[in-house]
Specification:
The protein is 51% helix and 7% strand. The protein is an alpha/beta fold. Bound molecules: iron/sulfur cluster (2 copies).
Length: 408
Amino acid sequence: MQTSISEHLRDTADGKEANRILRACTHCGFCTATCPTYQLLGDERDSPRGRIYLMKQVLEGATPSASTQLHLDRCLTCRMCETTCPSGVEYAKLLDIGRELVDAQVPRPAGARLTRWGLRQVLPYRRRFGLLLALGRLARPLLRGPLTPLRHRIPPRQPTLAEPDRTQLTRRMLVLDGCVQPSATPATNAAAAQVLARFGIELITAPQAGCCGALSRHLSARAEADAFARANIDAWWPHIEAGAEAIVMTASGCGAEVAEYGYILRHDPEYADKAARVSALTRDLSDVLGAEDLRRLGNIGRGRKIAYHPPCTLQNAPALQDRVASILGHAGFQLTAVADRHLCCGSAGSYSILQADISNQLRRDKLAALGAGQPELIVTANIGCQLHLDSASTVPVHHWIELLADAG
Ligand code: SF4
Ligand code: SF4
């Protein structure tokens, strides 16, 4: 499409990048067919094409309004539109730029500012979140009446898994512990360590590595998100130099962010090369395990009926779309058919808190689709989806890797 970026943005890095992305869009509207918010709300401004148009107007000098901000806020950043777009429009990169521009010009009400600040102060910090979760678990029995939904949001404690015997392991990979996962779902990385150990792979963590930065980035706090990226690179670098084969992501949402470090820090002279190397080494757990001889898993599933929810962050990576399902199939699990698997479950980082109504509708639809085949369990590959679905599901929701460890 034709663009005319405003004079004060035209020569900035963001202005040039936004212009490049906008020019690729032909306004064809194919993307609207797979956009969850457009399907739900039916408003062009809640579609990718509509949001692109809103951002174009702002980039061309129009003053954004609270309505512009609302329609951008309602985007899940699920990137399903990118998967559908025949012109390769990099919508998510444009959205990061557009949201920041709009947020700089449209002040949010005090309550919204406080909520967003609070999320950024707690969720990315392992100890702070762990403390809050511990308090929440203590208070859980008292959360009744109108506070019942909050009670359901507090994940129960997971059983501790045995550490694998590391003495015979010849291959070494880093794994990201992240921010929320160590206290909310510690079984995920414990199970990953157990399962990969059977294939001779030792998972190691860099204690200084923490939040991937995605939450801050989606809340328009770019400097903070970039700082998380740099801190992770610093923490991993000695291990990379020592020969770590890969950086394994057990939460696909974090994996999508770390895979972009090379792009995010491309203009940083000190970090650009290291960031590109980190992104190149980043692999989803399903990619790592899927490359091994899966016959060695045996028939541990014994035909148990499982419903799998592929997170958007895996669906957007074509090579990984069916990897988890394939691994579980090899391990003898029977996967039920799930309708509309491309639609987001509504978790989307802090979206489930900031856009609760849309998020809850998407979750309701997703749980209905997942439950249709009457599975014994639901599994997914991202902590956000796992906790969001589990908080309203009558069927237990787990990370898929737990199934392989439990049965081992
Ligand atoms: S983003 Fe892609 S699919 Fe959507 S209107 Fe633009 S070119 Fe068409
Ligand atoms: S990222 Fe998802 S919610 Fe946002 S415009 Fe694209 S398809 Fe719609």
